[in-house]
């Protein structure tokens, strides 16, 4: 899924599930930031410190040359959670893969249930964990029938791209209101609205559960009809269509949600100094905490700690699969 779902629709779902405006902002931002947090950053306390005091993690990479070990710490954990293979879609070639993503799998459910537990524990990272896990959970619908690794299982015929995740399908699996064809499947015609509406229903239920409340069926039915009305049918082709118009309609539901700024957390927490490299005539950029902030209560730090917690729990839940 792209920013339209991970940020705007997630924000709508969180709002309608009863979270406060500020909680909605953190959940939706954390959900989308998973796709943009692609730089491992060493942070120093001062210009002369020889070793960093903190190192961030990464939750996304577009590097097709990434070693498989590194790939296994990103894609199956944040974007292609392995599924329940008995429930996988039928393929024309009958192939299966242990890392194949299926929607709402038992593994994905366990990972987001763990995030709900952290949120309900009143941990300062809990609201960030909920947003991060929502990204991974939502992607089990968009990324179904793909594995989060480099493998011929992901390949489309005559597409000269690395067979990593849904690279061969480019952005077709991620666009709201889009129809496309997955030629590997017995039933190849895909309607993303069907998939994304199922994802929205499940996420809404998770959000209600996180708040200790049951789903109100009438409220969900009203929200479902609202989403269907915003999406206004489907389109096909190779270009995303209608995104700006749909976002304008989400804004009517969450007018307090600002435009997404992928630099917001870093820029509010870190500063960059151009410092000499000891023992040489060279200079280098050094990232340091901004003056006057408490680093451990900053949103960027809390997101990073939440992401690390997500990785730790996902590795435990997916034990054995990540070495397949």
List the helices and strands and how they pair.
Elements: H1 3-17, H2 21-33, E1 42-44, E2 54-55, H3 68-72, H4 75-78, H5 106-120, H6 126-142, E3 179-181, E4 189-191, H7 192-210, H8 217-231, H9 243-253, H10 264-269, E5 270-276, E6 283-289, H11 299-317
Parallel strand pairs: 1-6
Antiparallel strand pairs: 1-2, 3-4, 5-6
Describe the structure.
By secondary structure, the chain is an alpha+beta fold. The chain has one domain. It has helices at 3-17, 21-33, 68-72, 75-78, 106-120, 126-142, 192-210, 217-231, 243-253, 264-269, 299-317, and strands spanning 42-44, 54-55, 179-181, 189-191, 270-276, 283-289. It has a four-stranded mixed sheet with strand order 2-1-6-5. The protein has a two-stranded antiparallel sheet with strand order 3-4. Strand 3 (179-181) and strand 4 (189-191) form a beta hairpin. Helix 5 packs antiparallel against helix 6 and helix 5 (106-120) packs across helix 11 (299-317). The protein is globular. The mean pLDDT is 95.
**Count, helices:** 11
Tell me, rounded to a whole number, the average pLDDT: 95
Low-pLDDT regions: none
Strand content: 5-15%
Separation of the first and last Cα atoms: 25 Å
Task: Summarize this structure as a short list of keywords or feature phrases.
four-stranded mixed sheet; 324 residues; alpha+beta; 8% strand; DUF6765; globular; 11 helices
Entry summary:
The chain has 324 residues and is of the alpha+beta class. Helices cover 43% and strands 8% of the residues. The strands form two sheets. It has a four-stranded mixed β-sheet.
């Amino acid at each position: 899924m792209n920013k339209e779902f991970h940020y705007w629709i997630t924000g709508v779902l969180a709002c309608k599930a009863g979270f406060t405006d500020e909680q909605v902002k953190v959940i939706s931002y954390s959900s989308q930031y998973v796709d943009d947090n692609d730089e491992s950053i060493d942070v120093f306390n001062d210009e002369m410190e020889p070793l960093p005091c903190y190192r961030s993690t990464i939750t996304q990479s577009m590097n097709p040359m990434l070693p498989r070990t590194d790939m296994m710490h990103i894609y199956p954990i944040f974007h292609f959670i392995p599924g329940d293979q008995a429930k996988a879609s039928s393929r024309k070639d009958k192939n299966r893969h242990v890392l194949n993503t299926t929607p709402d799998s038992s593994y994905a459910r366990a990972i987001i249930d763990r995030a709900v537990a952290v949120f309900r524990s009143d941990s300062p990272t809990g609201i960030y964990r909920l947003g991060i896990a929502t990204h991974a959970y939502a992607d089990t619908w968009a990324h179904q029938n793909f594995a989060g690794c480099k493998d011929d299982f992901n390949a489309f015929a005559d597409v000269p791209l690395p067979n990593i995740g849904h690279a061969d399908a480019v952005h077709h699996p991620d666009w709201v209101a889009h129809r496309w064809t997955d030629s590997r499947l017995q039933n190849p015609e895909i309607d993303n609205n069907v998939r994304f509406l199922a994802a929205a229903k499940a996420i809404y239920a998770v959000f209600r559960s996180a708040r200790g409340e049951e789903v109100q069926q009438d409220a969900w039915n009203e929200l479902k009809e609202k989403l269907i009305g915003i999406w206004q049918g489907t389109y096909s082709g190779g270009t995303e269509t209608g995104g700006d118009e749909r976002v304008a309609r989400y804004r009517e539901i969450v007018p307090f949600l600002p435009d997404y700024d992928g630099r917001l957390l870093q820029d509010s927490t870190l500063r960059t100094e151009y410092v000499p490299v000891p023992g040489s005539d060279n200079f280098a950029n050094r990232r340091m905490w901004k003056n006057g902030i408490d680093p451990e209560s900053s949103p960027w730090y809390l997101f990073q700690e939440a992401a690390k917690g997500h990785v730790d729990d996902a590795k435990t839940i997916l034990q054995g699969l990540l070495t397949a």
